[in-house]
Structure to design on (297 residues):
């Protein structure tokens, strides 16, 4: 019985050491803020993984919305993504999504986990514009580029 | 195959399948699982991260061994021990916070509420005990 526990623990420690998303053995007093946000999104079923974003690029039904500044968007964004730059926000930006049925699945993203614009934008799309299925790619642009995802450049 | 032997295989596959699924859904994201454990408020803080690192792999390994029919007795005992630990953690969580999403099967709330998880754990404890008794009766290790 101890052998199963030890083997499982050994595998866990080894995976934690070599995988890109390992955590420290020492538990911090409070989880980092980004971790708390990510967990809230996960518990509410709003968290989207990199693999899911790759999949929705194939299916073509889901709309991606980039929350970064327009200059960052122009220099590179996930193919097909629309831009609603939260730092330059104006309510008229809702017009950019006016043609979409409210049932359209939407995924927001921004720079990465240090950036909370994608979460705020998702709340606005859901609560103010009435989109029924809005989720967040919290890993964002950093995760996309880190995984060598394809990109488009230029304005919308 | 004698009927008790068929029952033992079925119990192995059910218990193993559940443990493998439970472990595999948590392995890719230990940070999220650490937050889930933290939310239970049932474990001392220093144990949270080590548990988040080790537990999914122990679950997955128990599942694999049960399905493969290797070290069945040891694996069933570990499963039983883990299930009792889960029942204790869920009970503490329910006592502190009322019913909540258990996070038993990783992202998306696939494990259902804490109360439904308690019921499922009770059924799985029954499966593990029955499996151990059948193995004991047949003299298998």
């Amino acid at each position: 019985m101890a052998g199963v526990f030890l083997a499982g623990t050994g595998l866990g420690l080894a995976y934690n050491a070599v995988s890109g998303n390992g955590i420290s053995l020492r538990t911090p007093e409070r989880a980092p803020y980004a971790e708390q946000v990510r967990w809230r999104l996960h518990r509410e079923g709003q968290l989207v993984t990199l693999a899911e974003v790759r999949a929705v690029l194939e299916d073509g039904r889901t709309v991606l919305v980039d929350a970064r500044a327009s200059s960052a968007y122009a220099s590179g964004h996930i193919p097909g993504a629309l831009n609603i730059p939260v730092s330059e926000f104006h309510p008229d930006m809702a017009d950019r999504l006016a043609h979409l049925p409210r049932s359209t699945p939407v995924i927001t993203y921004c720079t990465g986990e240090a950036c909370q614009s994608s979460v705020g934008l998702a709340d606005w799309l859901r609560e103010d514009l009435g989109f029924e299925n809005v989720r967040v790619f919290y890993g964002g642009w950093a995760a996309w580029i880190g995984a060598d995802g394809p990109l488009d450049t230029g304005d919308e | 195959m004698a009927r008790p032997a068929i029952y033992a295989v079925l119990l192995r596959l059910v218990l193993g399948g559940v443990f493998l699924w439970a472990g595999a859904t948590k392995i890719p994201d230990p940070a999220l699982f650490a937050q889930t454990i933290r939310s239970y408020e049932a474990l001392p803080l220093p144990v949270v991260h080590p548990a988040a690192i080790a537990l999914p792999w122990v679950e997955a390994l128990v599942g694999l061994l049960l399905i493969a029919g290797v070290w069945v007795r040891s694996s069933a005992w570990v499963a039983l021990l883990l299930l009792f630990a889960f029942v204790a953690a869920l009970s503490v969580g329910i006592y502190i916070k009322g019913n909540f999403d258990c996070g038993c099967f990783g992202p998306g709330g696939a494990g259902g509420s804490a109360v439904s998880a308690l019921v499922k754990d009770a059924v799985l404890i029954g499966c593990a005990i029955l499996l151990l008794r059948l193995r004991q009766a047949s003299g298998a290790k």
Q: What stands out?
A: The beta strands of chain A are 63-66, 82-83, 106-109, 134-136. Chain A has six helices and four strands. The first helix of chain A runs from residue 2 to 18. The interface with chain B takes residues 1, 3-5, 7-9, 11-13, 15-16, 21-27, 29, 31, 35-36, 38-39, 42-43, 45, 47 of chain A (CB under 8 Å).
